[in-house]
Amino acid sequence: MRKLSVFCLLLIVLAACGNNTDEESTDQTGEDAKQLKKITLVLDWTPNTNHTGLYVARDKGYFEEEGLNVDIIQPGEAGAEQLVATGNADFGVSYQEGITEARIQNVPIVSIAAIIQHNTSGFASLKENNITTAKDFEGKSYGGWGAPVEKAVLDSIMQEDNADVEKVEIVNIGNTDFFTALEQGIDFAWIYYGWDGIKAELRDQPLHMNYLTDYSKKLDYYTPVLATNENMIQDDPETIKSFLRAVSKGYEFAIENPSEAADVLIEAVPDLDPELVKASQEWLSPKYQDDAEKWGIQKLEVWENYANWMYENDLLEAELDSEKAFTNDFLP
Fold first, then answer.
1. Whole-prediction pTM value?
2. pLDDT exceeds cutoff 70 at 29
């Protein structure tokens, strides 16, 4: 959830590093040796069911079939977008909102596939608190991470209910867990239902969700996405195609086999709660592709809608050239 925020450290290190996709590793299997290309994939956050297809692609050998040795890492303080933009990671999990902001700052990061076809995030509150409309946000406390986009989104959807965002107490809770924030007196927060919402179900804490997509088509943006940088696109397009062939197979497997895909993620990341992963996977698997013609596809209209919304709400210094922010060219 916290990676919905802006990222502004990218420009500091853009010139410092180069692309690292030329490295190769030797993987010995019995007497056969395969020359596999070493690739780094950085997540946006700790592993969860947004990432299941990536682990399936790795652990079921789909990457290896494409001649790739993919190392899946967590971002640390640098952030996935920063590592990808500087070439310190070949691919990363990002978000349309972050890439939009980066492109305006001339950061050369490009979305190459939508992991989930529609925005599954929204403002969550305990059902017992009866916060059922955006009008009900008035007089309540919102727990966020301190990004300007939060107030803009709140304002946008509250206007649909003739409500005043200035009547919301906006509290910066940083990385505090959603449930901990509720215990500390926060009335509602911005979550992805596929993880925290499912966790609430398992804890027998019914939630009410005000999904962003309930209020505006412009807020139905791609979150999360897979990204790479412009150097990779120019210098090594075949590796991108190989990578996405494997990843597409991984997510297609997760769509068709949510239980088995969940087992792959649980085995790969033993610290995860198996019950949560299983339940989350059942909820999320149909949403990876949803109504799209195939997994990963992105529409220009979606990019333009959200960029225009950001510009209209003074979240961008200039208008986005949406056609350069994403591409479907590498999808199988």
1. 0.89
2. no
